[in-house]
Amino acid sequence: MSLDNADRAVPPALEDLKIAVVGLGYVGLPLAVEFGRIRDVVGFDINQPRIDALRRGEDTTLETDAEELAAAKQLGFSTDPADIAGCNLYIVTVPTPIDAHRRPDLTPLIKASETVGKVLKRGDIVVYESTVYPGATEEDCVPVLERLSGLTYNRDFFCGYSPERINPGDKEHRLPSIRKVTSGSTPEVASLVDSLYASIITAGTYKAESIRVAEAAKVIENTQRDLNIALINELAIIFNRMGIDTEAVLKAAGTKWNFLPFRPGLVGGHCIGVDPYYLTHKAEAIGYRPEIILAGRRLNDGMGAYVAEQLVKAMLKQRIQVNGARVLVMGLTFKENCPDLRNTRVVDVIAELQSYGVAVDIYDPWADAAEAQHEYGLALVDRPQAGAYDGVMIAVAHDEFREDAEGLVAGCVKADHVVYDLKNVLPREANAIRL
Questions:
Q1: How far, in Å, are 135, 233, 234, 306, 366 from residue 237 at the CA level?
Q2: Which of 254, 260, 290, 352 sits at 20 to 30 Å (Cα–Cα) from 143?
Q3: Cβ(164)–Cβ(129) below 8 Å
Q4: DSSP of 301-348, one letter per residue?
Q5: pLDDT tens-digit profile of 364-418?
Q6: What is the C-alpha end-to-end distance of the chain, expressed in Å?
Q7: Catalytic option among 141, 271, 338, 412
Q8: Catalytic: 412?
Q9: Average pLDDT, the chain
Q10: Model pTM?
């Protein structure tokens, strides 16, 4: 339905934008910091301890440091929705996880939309960055904004979508140096949103033709990576049965200019292991069963159990009593050099080992012990126990492990032991099992 331009609200000018960033995790905080260098920004989060830490200049995600926080002189922090009521552009950067049945859980997104909807005014703009399936912004979020505000979409207020591309722990590819996709609900708003992001993104922006296109572009970025890793994981399983070193095969194949450099392993984190389920959920909702995407997900979701079983089989071959054995798992975070525990699939390895009666110690200098206990009910050890372990699983390639992996392993294992080097940290001559 077309709207009479005379009745349509006028969005604010670029120079008049006052920004609220709703959700200050791995995505929202770097965004708030960059904007806070050049314009007024309120960083909003419902987690009071998180806000208190940021006010002290502390970021537990390690995506920003005290110097960067101090440089964002126009950035303030709050847990009070009243403090964002004076803003006219809201950027929502909350998590979009999956539930226990691997279905999209939009609860944080809906609650954030309710918070914004209660303070939304005529002419305001709401931009979403959270990863969703195509259509979610306008089909799931906009009705909440309308209901809570009493305003009408694209007449009284407007929306945009600019998918996040943050890579936790990556100090080379940071927010300003990653090209940003933008979009808006009207051509005028799309241009405004694009100009806003262009003011902080040195790598440039790409204005998608619609919100749905921008949503779809984001969700297939990680779906493509998931499928490529699934292929390499399946090849690793095949080569393992054939007695062929997968890494050696990949190095040889990698001499061709267009061979993609993917490696086998556990697929966790807040993106690659989650986003494909958003796309498959929407596909099934419109009557299509996505066979290839779901096959890749099944394979990757099963890798934790697979590598644990390989370790157990190797222990049995060395006549090590499995039930009651002690195994050290090195690394719990979903990736190296990063404290992020979200959707880490190392927990699958631990659960499978425990199902065989193995006592598992977990050592990770990057992980927060309280978070590991709260999220997964797992306790971390401060250091490996000397000469105590029948097996070691190197699950995450932290720099601390790479620097002295041989020494760490040698100092904690029994005379008869098995080492599974999931991340190729040890030298080839170390005689460790590899994926």
A1: 37, 6, 5, 9, 29
A2: 290
A3: yes
A4: HTHHHHHHHHHHHHHHHTT---TT-EEEEE--SSSTT----TT-THHH
A5: 999 999 999 999 999 999 999 999 999 999 999 999 999 988 999 999 999 999 9
A6: 56
A7: 271
A8: no
A9: 95
A10: 0.92
